[in-house]
Design a protein that fits this description.
Layout: H1 9-17, H2 23-34, E1 42-44, H3 47-63, E2 73-77, H4 104-111, E3 115-120, H5 154-161, E4 167-172, H6 178-184, E5 187-190, E6 210-215, H7 218-228, E7 271-275, H8 276-279, H9 301-316, E8 320-324, H10 332-347, H11 366-377, H12 380-393, H13 398-420, E9 425-429, H14 445-450, H15 456-461, E10 465-472, E11 478-485, H16 490-503
Parallel strand pairs: 2-3, 7-8, 7-9
Antiparallel strand pairs: 1-3, 4-6, 5-6, 5-10, 9-11, 10-11
The structure holds glutamine.
């Protein structure tokens, strides 16, 4: 039997049900590993609360009324509000804040029987690509502690890679589940926008924010996603009114050594669309003569190679690779950083020192109180986005920036629909590089924004998308491949990822020392 902390969610759930070990034993093991807070992954831990939840799970198992994931531990990104743990959203302005209620996603996972290990570090209000924007310090990457874990769900990815938790929640506004999953060698999925309730998720950019699970495998993500999703119409106005699904239902292996030869539409081969702009013989493939390890668009050759190898693997399983085009995807960076800043400037107006969170100690009048509270409470990146957002929404600039961005956002979504006429899923890189060194880009916001080029398009379109590990790059750092499905096709997306993980071991690789 594997060590408890090396088990997947599926293995833990099965072992708990069979009473091979108890929920208290499992929780105790993870709490011990979390001691000393390795990688600065956690922001709040309460062993007594965790152990009490584990004991309650053991009681349910003994009585025979266990939930599907009864007793399996999970940790939550500190963007989800929780009654029993503090919620800071990685910001000083919410230091020690305690919510009177649990986010819907948190309560759904509790109802499924999951035990909460604590709250995970993240970029302030989920704004970032490196987890260096947390007011509580950066998170380090378990594969190389001199490197970033990715962001904004960096604590979630680092905790799973370091075996501090078997599973975690993340949120993805423009890549924050996929990119840290890729950088830490784990698996993560962002469902279709509206699948998971945003109630109790501290809002960053409401038209993009979406919760999703992060774990070691697609199989685990399917189990977690099935417990997280479902309509929440009374509490989230953008919640989709579609019944929740069992996202594991397509994981069973079809017969034969070419399982993908019949996994596409009408029993034909699964067609994987590869955007020519990302990997094809297009202009971005031209190598930069000055830096042979990097393409002219900034993508590392090592990343490209790992993706191409993974695609070849898919072809050997019977998939058909077809070139598709996403012509407007290259505009995602300006579009996203206008839209998300606009929405953030509005969402973050609630942090004014009146209703909750930090309030400046000294002030002369109300306006001065607002100003001092927000100056003291928000970090640089958050202030930058509030300023950009207020600017693009202001009179005279709204049409020039915000409206234009919304129009191009629509065109990006339409490009995907044209592409999906030719294929079942789309594959490409998650990020142009592997995890960079701590501090390398911390003074350069634009360098951080550029690293989001491959994750932003699916976010802007609201499509389900995931990251799976496909091996290590030259520096020994994990590379992630992105898989994008059409709306509500999460079950298919997870089965496509699962097929790969059944015949490869990249997702099982463990960083040294973990
Ligand atoms: N890196 C992107 C940003 O900084 C995405 C963040 C996210 O998905 N929460 O906004």
């Amino acid at each position: 039997m594997a060590d408890l902390h090396d088990m997947t969610v599926a293995e833990l759930a099965a072992g708990l049900k069979k009473k091979d070990f108890s929920a208290v034993e499992v929780a105790t093991r993870f709490l011990a590993r979390m001691g000393g807070n390795p990688h600065n992954a956690f922001l709040d831990i309460h062993s007594e609360t965790t152990l009490a939840q584990a004991q309650a799970s053991d009681d349910k198992i003994a009585k025979g009324n266990a939930g599907p994931l009864e007793g399996v531990p999970i940790a939550h990104k500190d963007i989800f509000v929780t009654k029993d743990f503090a919620t800071t959203a990685g910001s000083k302005i919410l230091k020690d804040y305690r919510s009177p209620f649990d986010a819907t996603v948190v309560s759904k996972l509790r109802e499924a029987g999951m035990v909460t290990l604590g709250k995970l570090n993240c970029d302030e209000f989920a704004m970032g690509s490196a987890n260096e924007n947390s007011a509580y310090g950066a998170v380090t990457n378990p594969w190389d502690t001199t490197r970033i874990p990715g962001g904004s769900s960096g604590g979630s990815a680092a905790a799973i890679a370091a075996r501090l938790a078997p599973a975690a929640t993340g949120t993805d506004t423009g890549g924050s589940i996929r990119q840290p999953a890729a950088f830490c060698g784990i698996t993560g999925i962002k469902p279709t926008y509206g699948r998971a309730s945003r109630y109790g998720m501290v809002a960053f950019a409401s038209s993009l924010d979406q919760a999703g699970p992060m774990a070691r495998s697609a199989e685990d993500c399917a189990l977690l996603l099935s417990a997280m999703c479902g309509p929440d119409l009374d509490r989230d106005s953008t919640s989709l009114n579609v019944a929740n699904e069992d996202f594991s239902r397509l994981l069973a292996v079809p017969a034969g050594d070419k399982p993908l030869a019949t996994a596409g539409k009408d029993g034909g081969p699964l067609r994987i669309g590869v955007p020519g702009e990302w990997l094809g013989a297009g202009s971005q493939m031209a190598f930069d003569s000055g830096a042979p390890a990097r393409r002219s668009d900034g993508t590392d050759i090592e990343v490209q190679r790992r993706i191409e190898e993974a695609l070849a693997h898919y072809a050997s399983l019977g998939a058909e690779l077809v070139e598709v085009s996403l012509p407007q995807a290259q505009l995602s960076i300006p579009v996203y950083y206008i839209v998300c800043a606009a929405e953030a400037s509005s969402n973050l107006s609630r942090f004014d020192g009146v209703k909750f969170g930090h309030r400046a100690k000294e002030f002369s009048d109300l306006a001065d109180m607002y100003q001092r509270t927000r100056s003291e409470g928000f970090g640089d990146e958050v202030k930058r986005r509030i300023m950009i957002g207020s600017y693009v929404l202001s009179h005279g600039y709204y049409d020039a920036y915000y409206l234009q961005a919304q129009k191009i956002r629509r065109m990006i979504a339409q490009d995907f629909q044209k592409a999906f006429a030719q294929c079942d899923v789309i594959a490409g890189p998650v990020a142009p590089t592997t995890a960079w060194k701590l501090g390398d880009k911390s003074d350069d916001p634009v360098a951080n924004y550029l690293a989001d080029i491959f994750t932003l398009p699916a976010s802007l379109a609201g499509l389900p998308c995931m990251s799976i590990p496909v091996g290590l790059g030259d520096m020994g750092m994990p590379v992630g491949m992105q898989l994008i499905g059409n709306y509500l096709q999460e079950a298919q997306l997870l089965s496509v990822a699962h097929r790969f993980q059944q015949v490869t071991a990249f997702h099982d690789a463990t960083p040294e020392g973990a």
